[in-house]
Automatic annotation (TrEMBL):
The keyword Transit peptide applies. Keywords: Mitochondrion, Ribonucleoprotein, Ribosomal protein, Transit peptide. GO terms for biological process: translation. Its main location: mitochondrion. The keyword Nucleus does not apply. GO terms for cellular component: mitochondrial large ribosomal subunit. Belongs to the mitochondrion-specific ribosomal protein mL37 family. It comes from Ficedula albicollis. Pfam families: PDCD9 (PF07147). One of its GO terms (molecular function) is structural constituent of ribosome. It is found in: Mitochondrion. This is Large ribosomal subunit protein mL37. InterPro entries: mtLSU_mL37, Ribosomal_mL37/mL65.
Length: 408
């Protein structure tokens, strides 16, 4: 379609439009009509007030991090925004739980295999179940294993899972006003806080750490800038709630379309931002809004998964003085890209002769022992290359839980 030629407006000359002709005329200007007024308020077609007229409007902009933010620089960007030092691997307190044979976590390997088989193979009639189907089922089954150990470790019964809870945390970084706001994933709360995982010497040693910058990229890239906001610090729970301490955040990337899922680096950045937001909101609720180094650091854990690849994180908030790059830094431990299992697939049965079918069945059982026949027996489902889920389960525990279970 050929676009109409623009009509050049001339000063002191009236613009000739095709308004009176009621149809488009080439060469004449497009008429401009005043906005139509209904004469009554229609909420379905109301343009709403202008931003400048809203009571929460502020001249200073605020950069918001919510569930939909995908950080370009990943964990590096989240480190700068939260003034955090990164330590690769899990902290010794958590790694000691994994390596302790007296806890019997190795005995859960067989149950974890059934959990994966149930989520990927047995819970659906489809040959290849969708990720949005098996990812939540896998999460619920792993949480069920942790709940079943509350008889041996009574403190595990003092936890509560909260879904669709909202978080709000506000802080300043240099001259930038920042907020973590919105839904914060699936949150496990506890009646008692997680004890600090870093000693005071390790906390003081963070003063020498220099935060990495990524100039010329702005640290607020991909964050949403708004002028209508409220400076709020809220944990999402009322005062007096018995399970008031954040324990572990869970993020499920269950979108079946690959482009709709967060990349592992982006997922780890989101985990860090929301773990920091929950810890900061709790610290300000306990110690006030004055920036200072915390005598009792706040620890929040986080687990992210797409149904196969797991990301583990332990965050410790050491200070609420986040304006400058000097002084004590916060700490985060990340154990990234851990495969719970290698693959889950359907193995077809070749039906040529009865003897051949029997041999095929035996071979499948020998190589892939975790199988289930489906329907008329035309498919055998098998989960191969399984890797134990000890790290996933041990993050639910703390050293206090282990000590209590051992003593009981």
């Amino acid at each position: 379609m050929v676009e109409p030629r623009p009509v050049r407006e001339q000063v002191e000359l009236d613009t000739v439009t095709y308004a009176e002709r009621l149809h488009y005329v080439p060469g004449l200007a497009r008429p401009r009509f005043p906005p139509w007024q209904r004469g009554w308020h229609d909420p379905w077609h109301s343009p709403g007030p202008r931003y400048e007229e809203m009571p929460l409007y502020k001249e200073r902009g605020c950069f918001i991090c919510h569930q939909g933010v995908r950080m370009l620089e990943g964990v590096r960007q989240a480190q700068w925004l939260t003034k955090t030092k990164l330590v690769e691997g899990l902290p010794p307190a958590v790694q000691g739980i994994v390596d302790n044979p007296a806890l019997g976590l190795q005995e859960l390997e067989e149950r974890a295999k059934h959990v994966v088989s149930h989520a990927r193979l047995w819970d659906t009639a489809e040959a290849a179940p969708r990720r949005e189907k098996y990812c939540p089922v896998l999460f619920e089954n792993l949480i069920h294993i942790c709940r079943s150990m509350s008889g041996k470790y009574p403190s595990l019964s003092k936890r509560m899972l909260a879904r669709n809870c909202r978080i709000a945390a506000t802080w300043e970084r240099e001259s930038i006003l920042l907020q973590v706001r919105g839904l914060s994933g699936i949150l496990m709360n506890s009646m008692t806080p997680i004890p600090p995982v870093a000693s005071k010497e390790e906390i003081l040693a963070t003063k020498e750490h220099v935060l990495e910058t990524f100039y010329p990229i702005a640290p607020t890239i991909d964050l949403q800038e708004v002028n209508v906001y409220k400076e709020l610090n809220d944990t999402g729970f009322r005062d007096g709630y018995p399970y008031s301490h954040p324990h572990t955040l869970f993020f499920l990337e269950s979108a079946s379309v690959r482009t709709d899922r967060f990349r592992p680096e982006q997922l780890r950045a989101k985990m860090l931002m929301f773990a920091f937001g929950n810890a900061l909101a709790k610290a300000k609720a306990l110690h006030g809004n004055d920036p200072k180094v915390l005598e009792q650091p706040v620890v929040v854990q986080s687990i992210g998964t797409d149904g196969q690849l797991f990301q583990f994180m332990v965050f410790q908030l050491n200070t609420t003085d986040l304006v400058s790059n000097d002084g004590v830094k916060n700490l985060v431990w990340i154990d990234s890209d851990q495969n719970l299992y290698e693959r889950a697939q359907c193995v077809p049965e070749v039906k040529k002769r009865v003897v051949v079918v029997r041999k095929t069945w035996e071979i499948v059982m020998e190589i892939l022992p975790f199988h289930q026949s489906w329907g008329s027996g035309s498919w055998h489902r098998a989960a191969a290359g399984f890797k134990p889920a000890e790290v996933d389960i041990c993050l639910i525990f703390t050293q206090a839980d282990v000590s209590e279970g051992t003593s009981s």
